Known about the structure:
26% of the residues lie in helices and 22% in strands. By secondary structure, it is of the alpha/beta class. The chain has two domains: 21-165, Rossmann fold (3-Layer(aba) Sandwich), CATH 3.40.50.10740; 174-309, Glucose Oxidase, domain 1, CATH 3.50.30.
Amino acid sequence: MEERITRGVTSFPRRLRPGDRVALVAPAGPVDPERLARGRDLLAGLGLEVVIGDHVLEREWFLAGSDAGRAADLQEAWCDPGVAAVICARGGYGTTRLLDLLDWDAMAAAGPKILLGSSDITALHRAFAHRLGVVTLFGPMPATALLGGPEGPDQVTFAHLKEVLFEGGRPGPIVGDRLLVPGRAGGGVIRGPVVGGNLALLAALCGTPYELRAEGCVVLLEDVTEEPYRIDRMLTQLRQAGCLDGALGFALGSWVECGDPLPVLAERLAPLGAPVIAGLPVGHGAPQLCVWMGADGTIVTESYSLTSMFRDPRAAP
């Protein structure tokens, strides 16, 4: 297979309309059938036709079935011209194991569509940016407690997801709660493509074709159940690998069950000279808001906000 690696994001998928077909796949950890059913019904209630990959409910060790089966579901959904969005059921672990199994030429030929997921799905956001040059959506997944729990979805999360997914929606900026590091320029307005995602996955991708390259970009970082010393270690790894060089600004999402990581984050990121805003409800926990990865992003340090701009692919340049 010919190697295909694009430099930078070049295409935007079409946003959804009622009646569109979406496919649920499980690239990572095992999926709870009841949460999956509730998440499926939630999406169907938005007027979407929901199909489920053949291997989604399989289980092998700590994975949602075999690597081959998980990769086949993902590739089949992406290459199906009748599918408008590929939605990852949950994160967990295992997505990086699929990156060498996908036929990137076939997936590139299929053209852009929405990919939605977060956490371990950071590996797909990085790979899709490099191999396909497509904007992807970092956001909540249907077979998680946040959307598929027995008490119903978190309403703020669900409302924002609907606003972002469908044509005509105009979600506003995502607002944090502090300027953690002012940066050398003293803050202001910072614009650049949004990259990043889950910190542990970004560290795991160091040394691969999909490693983070932050030059000229706005970097989103978040994680869950990582002690501050582990966050320190991963940030140090990214810095020593040059992955954070040239970043224009940092937007820090949630750090659920991570103790108090902000002092470590400030100490490790401050020498890079870029502003750092913190407290954005992105990543894990509730609410969990959506960010378009690869899209044009804007940090406003005065309001601690991040906006990721979606460009309609049918609009004139």
